[in-house]
């Protein structure tokens, strides 16, 4: 059994929200629950989240969109390359999260206990 973690972090790479998805599901379906009822000035993601629907939603909110573009995109958007370099903070968060063997190995049998472990690990990461 595989599970995807789609996470939203703040500007410092600290966990704000996350959604668990089955391993075979597309990452982009996890975005609407993450950004629902949340105010933010910018959104940074990798090319897995480069869809017209997400970009239109973020533009409607007035958020600055910094999403690496999928190579097959017909209409290219300009992104701030210097700002995009800061995306490593989310990657660092996932690296720190996977230091916890129970999360990396997906040892928990239920989504509820797996979510609880993610919250606990995030609290430990933030306290360092």
TrEMBL record:
A Pfam family: DDE_Tnp_1
Transmembrane segments: none
Limits of the Transposase IS4-like domain: 2-123
Gene Ontology MF terms: DNA binding; transposase activity
Superkingdom per UniProt: Bacteria
InterPro entries: Transposase_11
Gene Ontology BP term (one): DNA transposition
Name this polypeptide is given: Transposase
UniProt source species: Sphingobium indicum F2
Organism phylogeny: Bacteria, Pseudomonadati, Pseudomonadota, Alphaproteobacteria, Sphingomonadales
């Amino acid at each position: 059994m595989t599970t995807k973690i789609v996470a939203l972090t703040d500007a410092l790479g600290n966990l704000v929200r996350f959604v668990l998805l089955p391993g075979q599901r597309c990452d982009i379906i996890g975005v609407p629950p993450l950004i629902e009822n949340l105010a933010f000035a910018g959104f940074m993601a990798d090319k897995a989240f480069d869809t017209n629907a997400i970009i239109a939603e973020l533009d409607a909110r007035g958020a600055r969109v910094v999403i690496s573009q999928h190579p097959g995109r017909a209409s290219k958007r300009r992104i701030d390359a210097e700002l995009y370099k800061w995306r490593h903070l989310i990657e660092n968060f996932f690296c720190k999260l996977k230091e916890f063997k129970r999360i990396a190995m997906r040892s928990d049998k239920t989504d509820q206990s797996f979510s609880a472990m993610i919250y606990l690990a995030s609290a430990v990461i933030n306290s360092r």
